[in-house]
Amino acid sequence: MDFLSRMGRRWLPIGLAVVTAALVACGGNGDDDDDNGGDQPNPTQPRTLSGVAATGAAFTDAVVRVHAADGSVAGTSAPVGRDGTWQVTLAEGAKAPFVIIATRQSAVGETESLVSLVDAAPPGTTHVNVTPVTTLVAARVSPSGQPTRLPDEVKAGSATVDGSTLAAKTGEIKELLAPVLAATNTTSIDPFRTPFTIGSAGYDQLIDALLVTITPTGAASANIDISMKASGDAPAPRITFSSEQSLATIKANNSAVINTPIPTPSLPPVGIATLIEDLTTRMNACYALPTATRVSGTTAASVSAPACRTLFVGDDPTTYRGNGGAVSSSGSFSSLFPDNTTNLRFDQGSYEFTRGNGDIVVGLRSVTSDGAQVFDTFVVRNENGKLKLIGNQYQYNGAVNAFHQYRTFPTLNQSAFNYYSSGYTMTITNTTTSNGVPIFDRVVVDAPNGETLTLRPSAGSSFLTLVRADGSLSGTSVVRIASSYENAGTAGSPATRDTAVYFSPQQLTDPEIAVIPQQAVWTFRYYLASNPTVEAARQTYRTRARALTIAELKATPLPRFTSATLNALTSGANADGSVPMPTSQAYPVSWEVPTGALAPTQVQLFGVRVIGTAQQSFNDAVSVASTARSVAVTCSPATAADQHCNGSNFAANDYLTGVQMSVNDRTGRVFNVHANAYRLP
């Protein structure tokens, strides 16, 4: 089911890695005297910086700020529009070099940034591009590898921005990008000064093809990943390195990729950004119509408005199928049917990758009338020069995303064992028949590293959970590939102590995680309860971001539970650490969101129902607005065999074993904070 089908109960896990793009200008205007550049401006003639801010698609809604050599803001642009252009007139007296940072922020607080540098700004207008390629140059200029730190680094004198430095660092990036530059016929361009337009061949196709990720590992370093966006089922070429590495080391470690040509057919189609922009325009036209005009019933066949029907392949909504869901008021695109989604707006489109059958996966942001935002992906097909919605045509539900957690143990004085973990979550809804019986016997998942994982339904769980080696259910869908105690003095490993969750048998180091592909393919094999010996379906899912290393995760700000929520756990805990659930009211949870952290959009309770010696695990989740800081979680049975609810209240003998909050970023990365209420072994 696509996210638009869950608008009424928005489930949005958390993810945070900020992707920055930096723009660096190589020298001034060529024959200008450096002494007459930015250091001694002529006050009678204004100086203007302007250009295009884009990642292939225009960097819409971003605001461009130009920082002078002393770190002050020398000018601010209007929000970037659909053509990607921006313009800033510099404050009189502002001195070069200038750091140009374009930023936009989502409702949950995620900040995306593109950064650029220009060493001189003579009177008149200077053209400067702000793109992922210029970001890479800025990352090589920055001593921390983090382009958004450059205003402070230039002010402190730790970063040098002059013509020779920019030329040298631009040359480094061109060496690393040589195959894709050749494939897009952009070998000779100046990434900072060459003009281009959104949707054109050459430079725009180049940046549409690249997936650039810069992830801080602390205050003084970053991991940098340059990937080609995938085309087909084959692994995409990629280069990974630390900001602390020399060019020679980077080239030696990535020589196979740097020396292998990229075939032109593997590139994104020329003009894909324009096609995606046209799709959002048509989707907005559909959702602007009154509900009675959009639909006349509750099924795909009842989608009546031509503006809506023509969004789909064959101008027919019945052709769409996504993760087992057809278009309907309770399935895919259920947002077409209610009144409260009229004027739902789509924007910030992006090309993600091309599937093996040639269909294209695009990313879009949707914004409700009250300002709530959701980032989702859609499978589309080019039909007569228009992108049409087709879905992945899969029969069953499934998804995989990078997952990150800060796990605490507030009860029984166990805080020394608080830890960070990184991994992947496989989301498979515990789908049931009309009688509340799960339809799946199991789902077997083949991970990209060759590991095989099995998930099965549980009576009290809304999702399938991982099966341990001994056949028992783990109660989680997350496989943790790395972990580290928060307290460096705590001996041992979380993987051997916290047996309540699921750890991969082979725990990875940070360098091993850093080379995991961003767009890795996972294969899901479905077996039905009605015929468990026969594979019913095989579906593949591709991540849009890899799991973070532990160092990257520790450098990421996270939300935190309030003292009131934590005190309720510690004061009410039993000898085993669990907390009796209230039977006459919902369970209250509250939290805080520090600067830089993403705001949770889901809160979830975990527990066990104890009857005699038998225990049945359960979970209850509720979606929350990004502006919320508290919620009361009610009880909802997951299956017909689930007995942990008494109406919307919790039943007697229900015990809380954990509470968590989560959100995901625009790439689907999940960020999660979990407070446990059980005794560690």
Automatic annotation (TrEMBL):
Q: What is this protein called?
A: Bacterial Ig domain-containing protein
Protein species of origin: Piscinibacter koreensis
Keyword list (alphabetical) reads: Signal
Question: Which range is the signal sequence, renumbered to this chain?
Answer: 1-27
Species classification: Bacteria, Pseudomonadati, Pseudomonadota, Betaproteobacteria, Burkholderiales
Give the domain of life: Bacteria
State the PROSITE patterns in the record.
Answer: PROKAR_LIPOPROTEIN
